[in-house]
Design brief:
Layout: E1 3-8, H1 15-27, E2 30-36, H2 47-57, E3 64-69, H3 74-80, E4 85-90, H4 93-109, E5 114-119, H5 129-141
Parallel strand pairs: 1-2, 2-3, 4-5
Length: about 140
């Protein structure tokens, strides 16, 4: 059975994430969406709200599980679960540069971990979670 993790802060989980997850669900027998604490981002403290949104948006994908990871490096999380694949999405060349660095870091921690990249479909490619959060913040201040 081929299993993968799809890690991210997913704050918020949006159509671009769902696009990548749908593609991954066709390639792997099981994909675990891992809602991860990102120390570089000011994460929404309401983790339960994010998990519920992901559950709602992924209800039609039958081979998806959802877990949280608040205190481990992603590579260590994967090793503990005996998972050898990480799913990542690429939107543009800036994302690619970051993903190469992340790949190297993960491989230095867990040599048997491979990253499988999916390109976001054009209509899902333009908006990042960070930008969506900023838009939402401004809407709430009006």
């Amino acid at each position: 059975m081929k299993r993968a993790i799809y890690p991210g802060s997913f704050n918020p989980f949006h159509d671009g994430h769902l696009n990548i997850l749908t593609k991954a669900s066709k390639l792997f027998d099981e994909v675990i969406v891992v809602v991860t604490k990102n120390i570089s981002k000011n994460s929404n403290p309401d983790l339960e709200e994010r998990l519920e949104k992901i559950k709602l948006l992924t209800k039609d994908l039958k081979n998806i599980k959802i877990e949280t990871n608040q205190d481990k490096l992603t590579a260590d999380f994967a090793r503990e679960k005996d998972i050898h694949y990480i799913v990542r999405g690429i939107r543009d060349t800036k994302t690619l540069d970051y993903e190469i660095e992340l790949y190297d870091a993960n491989k230095s921690i867990y040599e048997d971990l491979e990253t499988v990249y999916f390109l976001s479909d054009n209509e899902s490619r333009q908006v990042s979670s960070t930008l969506l959060k900023e838009i939402e913040k401004y809407k709430n201040e009006e």
